[in-house]
Amino acid sequence: MSEIRTPVAPVFPVTDRVREAFAVSKRACDELLPEADWLQKLAKSEATGVPLRIKLGLDPTAPDIHLGHTVVLNKLRQLQDLGHQVIFLIGDFTSMIGDPSGRNATRPPLTQEQIKANAETYYAQASLVLDPAKTEIRYNSEWSDPLGARGMIQLAAKYTVARMMERDDFTKRFAAQTPISVHEFLYPLMQGYDSVALKSDIELGGTDQKFNLLMGRHLQQEFGQEPQCILTMPLLEGLDGIEKMSKSKNNYIGISEPANSMFAKVLSISDVLMWKWFALLSFRSEAEIAALKVEVEAGRNPKEAKVLLAKEITARFHSAEAAEAAEADFNNRARGGIPDDIPEVALSGAPLGVGAMLKAAGLVASGGEATRMIEQGGVKIDGVTISDKALKLQAGSFVAQVGKRKFARVELS
């Protein structure tokens, strides 16, 4: 009896261009799995001229994007520049479930109104990084809503509870007897089903998304598709250098922040953290960054390297001119100067206590904070440090300053 052979997928030639694309894919990533499969996908695309489908899913849980989100967006842009098609997937359906990744408790899902409001701003901000001409925008309610109860049950049958409990956050919560709702098991299933619906070749995400990304690979195989590869990017530590960048930790830089604020915040990070930010946020070549690091280790002031990073990031989200102006503003402040673009506030009630003035001008959140800042020598009126907490300010115009960055031009009557 003749032997039945399983058809073997063609092996496409790995050219120099394919190797370059592979190196770009791997730059600064945490994991690329499986590497051999991705190399062949790149080779096939090169040989056939058909772009690969690059998937990124984002749940619009908040309206704004910060630099931590752009780590993955930067990688998408690099793959776009190689000629591939990015699918920017807005998880309007999965947002209603709530992603349990990295959580130790259940959280309430978002309402449709919240999701819609947040999603409206997401793509506009992401377009500051991505090439809109090579970006396909999709919403996963498009195929998730029609799935219905029958389809959801059939999908759930393709994965076991034992496999689901291998997920780290579920394991920890189960051991700690912390509640796990059944609907949370649906999240990775639905994210994986997105990959089936989109026929993605690779899916990107943070390291905390690895389980969900692998689910997509598993379900594609279950549905008879060529499984996607997965690429995870490191999580970006925020301004504190400890916790991952997060609005809840108040250690973030929003990509829609004013240029001066963005520039100054980048300069505030540590000299050590700077190199990770270079690796994950800069579009400079790896060789260029390595050479810069050698110069700093040989004695060049690390602040000069940090200024280059701050100007690059600020220019990306504003303009080269805005970045130059932000540097000038920062240097002016460092010399004790007053920035040009400070808010103007009109107040009444003279003579007015200095603490009440600072609060009314929006420079402090409370009278207690005003007192504390005065005691620490952090309050200036027209450049003169104020030490008297009981000071009464007479009618007139003056510049009030709290700390290094907060200014207001006050007209007091």
From TrEMBL:
InterPro entries: aa-tRNA-synth_I_CS, aa-tRNA-synth_Ic, Rossmann-like_a/b/a_fold, S4_RNA-bd, S4_RNA-bd_sf, Tyr-tRNA-ligase, Tyr-tRNA-ligase_bac-type, Tyr-tRNA-ligase_bac_2. It comes from the Bacteria. The gene is tyrS. CDD domains: S4 (cd00165), TyrRS_core (cd00805). It is found in: Cytoplasm. HAMAP family: Tyr_tRNA_synth_type2 (MF_02007). This is Tyrosine--tRNA ligase. One of its GO terms (molecular function) is tyrosine-tRNA ligase activity. It comes from Roseateles oligotrophus. The lineage of its organism: Bacteria, Pseudomonadati, Pseudomonadota, Betaproteobacteria, Burkholderiales.
